[in-house]
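Handout, section B. The chain below has 589 residues.
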Amino acid sequence: MASTTRNESDAALALVHEGWNHLMSQRPLAAWGSWQRALRAEPGSPAARKALATLESAHELPLAARKTYRFRQPRTAQQRGRWDLAMRSGGADELDAAASVFERLTADAPDDVEAWFNRALCLAWRGRDVEAVECLDRVVALEAAHDVEGAVEAWTLAEVLRQGGGAETLADDLRYACTYPRDGVRVDDLLAAFPEIRRIPTPSDPTRADAKAQDVEVLEWLDRPFPDAARADEDVPASELPRVLATAYVGPETLRLSGPCVDGLERAEERLRLVVDDPGDAVERAAAPLPLPFLDAAAWTARFREGRDPADAARWSREMVEDFYEDRWIHRPRQGLDGLSPLAAARDARGGDAQAKARLAAVVRLREQLGARNGSAAMYQGYPFDRLRRRLGLDPADPASIDAADLSCASPWELEALDPAALEDHALVDAFLSARGLGDDAVTAPLADELLRRRPAGLARVDADDLAAPLVRSAMQAGRPDQALDALDRIRPLAAANRARTLYVWRAEIFARTGRADDAAGAYAALLDGDASVEAARLALDAGEALIDAGAPDRARRFLFEALRLAPRHGLRGLDARARRLLDSMGRD
């Protein structure tokens, strides 16, 4: 008897260790399954009970990752009879046996949605997340049209499973990285060339007694410098706060960029290539699923200046959440939505696609669970995810949580139905800012035109380039460059000094794209006159490339030489090399 007890205890302990390994690999359901099996091997196992309690109280995880799932029961007498027969012949006491039973049931009755869901649970409890997601996909296909809640529950679970180890190819929330040879790049040169880069404390490895602080320097590459310190924080909207494009790790031999937003990483990499000559295949790229507690990491890339007032920090946090989910996240494609962005899936859902609607509702539900965690309350500042549901045309969970008159989170269909001329001034500004976040010029351009005609006091809330962009794009797509130039002329007096330059650059680009090479060259020359900054070097290269594309290499040459003149001042070796290659391709005089 003692030997049997010892064997049972050893088996249970092995399963407890297996469960912890699953949890470390982001497979919480598989961890739960292992610990339940440990309790069957040794009833009352203290280690298994402690592990299960730890998972249940792991409030850093979204609810769908730590809740207890149960098998669904058959709904009809015929279904129940089929299940009873299958279980008598195969048994369902052990997990693998149960999985086999439900596999046979789905083979015999492909429309048995409960069997598909239960089979998914068996696979998830075993750590076979990819197969489990395939089963849950089948659940949604069968259930979305008549049991929306069942389909949403299934796909919310799938959103957790796709982040697990072994399912990396299905993951939607990733950390991206690219590693360049350092090639002699000095941190001081980066800081001098790009004022938006800042040093942050270098983490140390407490397990390495010989670790040296200078082994790796850590930088944050922001998309812009901090707002002018002379401005009061209450006058700074969250949209003007700098956001992290990437974190840079500068080691003795390599320079690594990493971040949760692939578009941010690409922008940082584009700037880095101004300093580093093209390394070709020497660049290493990688992407890995984010840990479950950090699935919303991309929402928290904005940076506040130190010493800010807590009230301003709270306001910025709430504005950041609204901006991220309602204007940015909705445009990012997700495998969990069949490769569509949430906004594109919302359009399919509105067109009657029940599966798209269920999947979209599930994706939003998991984000809501991230915001509901105890440790997230201060960051989310009570953000009601019904704002996001409204933005995507989904039914609200609590209609009282949102104001129907608030256009800032309005859906595309609400904004499309508006008559700009009939809106009050404040509503017109809100509608434009909301439409801008949707990125639909057909909706935004009429609102921008009305704002320009009326020029309400609230127009100060709108950046000049945001106002100009939909009008310029719409005019250019319609083949009306003069109309685009007219829009720039009308908006330029409204622009702050730091924004007006962008409008002048767009004017030069319009000339270049429409074959007016002389006008383009004159516009670029006026922008560069007397400017020796990093931005001038970049603009000189851009001007040269734009004029080459316009079929005017003779006019491009002067700007490429200007880029060559300015590049060494700022250590822009990559920019220098690109300009030289272009000149060589044309044949130097």
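Note. DSSP finds 26 helices and six strands in the chain. Compare this with the example in section A.
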